[in-house]
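Reviewers of the previous submission asked for a worked example of the structure-prediction workflow described in the proposal, so we include one complete record here. The input consisted solely of the amino acid sequence. No template or homolog information was supplied to the procedure at any stage.
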Amino acid sequence: MQWDKDAQLRHSATCLWPACLAGGRRAGILRIDDQLRLLGYDGCVASLPPDSIMEGWKKAGWIEVSPNRAEIRLTLDGAEQLARWQEEDRLWRTGVNAEVELPKRLKAGEPATNLRRISQVLSGRTIECVHDPYTRVESVVNLLKVNELGTPIERTLRLLTGALRTKECQTLASFLCDVNKENGSNWQARTYTTQKPHRRFLVCTDGTIVTCGASLNSLDKDEILEVVPKSHELAKYDRKFFEQQWRQAALCAC
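From that input alone, the workflow returned the following structure tokens.
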């Protein structure tokens, strides 16, 4: 049986996107080309060549290409399509006859509802770490609101953010001191000192990663929430990445 074009676009995407492009990551076009050829997409024996596959992804709106045409990354539509395929595959493997459940998506103009969506996606998991380049006092306030909605937060929560001006760092640290005093917790914030982070994700105590395109300081945006299982290579990478960056970061002190 020969696969049609749509089947080849789907198969190649589900094989490569989770490892190379999920979670906002970018990948070099030459690297993707090599990976596609390793999967057998070389234009021979009824298979599509790599350039046709990437062009198909682009026409579908699933990827965007950098201005210098050297890199690609997933769009929000691409992330949603990947989640749909993964859920379809999961249902097929388990033999469950159920409706495909897609990731939740935040919506502009609905900040209160978006807080509930975050709580629903976390589904009782305990937040242990937050990697967000724009962590501010408003971020902590929203975390407290999510906690009030039933989402547990680790007593020793760690927040890793981008570089802050001295006053911003002091304000955040002072607010965390007040929170810790009231709640008997030990929440800490640290800032990057050597690079500017981009990705936003939550690390849960069970090893799960929850990614979000929006910063916690402003949830009035259209962004997708995606749960990355603890066994996934991307989840393992993110947990290790957070620990490495945390050790190198500077503490925000009261």
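The two ends are 66 Å apart (CA to CA). We consider this example representative of the routine output the project will generate in years two and three.
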